[in-house]
Amino acid sequence: MWCHWRRKSPIRRRRIIAFIGEGSELEGKCTFSGTVMLSGKFKGNITTTDTLIVGERAVVHATVRAGTAIVNGELSGTVEATERVELKKGARVFSDLQAPVLLVEEGVLFEGHCRSTKSEPREGTRDDSVVPLRQ
After folding, report:
1. Over the stretch 62-114, which tens digit does the pLDDT of each residue have?
2. Would you call 30 helix, strand, or coil by DSSP?
C-alpha cells in the first residue's frame, strides 16, 4: 500500500483557471476570479480577489489589486494585496507593495516601498514560518 503525504499549503490550494503564455502581449484592464498565471507581457490594470502568479519570463507593467500576488518574473507598477505578496527567487520588482504579509526569497531584486496592512487571516491559512511585516 502506498501512502502519499502532502504538506498542506498555508494558502488554499491553487488551481490555475487561466494561463497567458510567453508569446502573448496584452494591454488593458484584466479582471478575474480564481488563480491566473501570466507568463507573457502585460500593461495596464489587474484586479482580482484571488491569486495572480507572474511567471519567470513575464514582464508586467501594471497596477495590481489582488488577494495574493506571487512574482517570479518582472513586475513594475503598484501592488495592493489583501492577503500576501510573495517575491520568489529571481524576481525583479520595481514596485510599491502593500500587503499584510510579504515574503521575499533570497535572490530577489526589489526597488520600491513596502507598506504593511492589517488583515483578518482566513481559517486554516496560518503559516508559522511566515512573519507579517510590522507597522
Report:
1. 999 999 999 999 999 999 999 999 999 999 999 999 999 999 999 999 999 99
2. strand
Hey, what amino acid is at 48?
T
Q: Is the pTM of this model over 0.85?
A: no
Q: For the residues of 38-103, what is the DSSP string, one character each? A: E-SEEEEEEEESSEEEE-TT-EEEEEEEEEEEEESSEEEEEEEEEEEEEE-TT-EEEEEEEES-EE
Whole-angstrom distance, CA of residue 27 vs CA of residue 132: 33
Residue 127, SS3?
Answer: coil
Are 52 and 46 in contact, with CB atoms under 8 Å apart?
Answer: yes
Phi, psi of 129 (to 5 degrees): -85, -10
Kind and range of the H or E element at 119?
Answer: none
pLDDT tens sequence across 29-66: 988 888 999 999 999 999 999 999 999 999 999 999 99
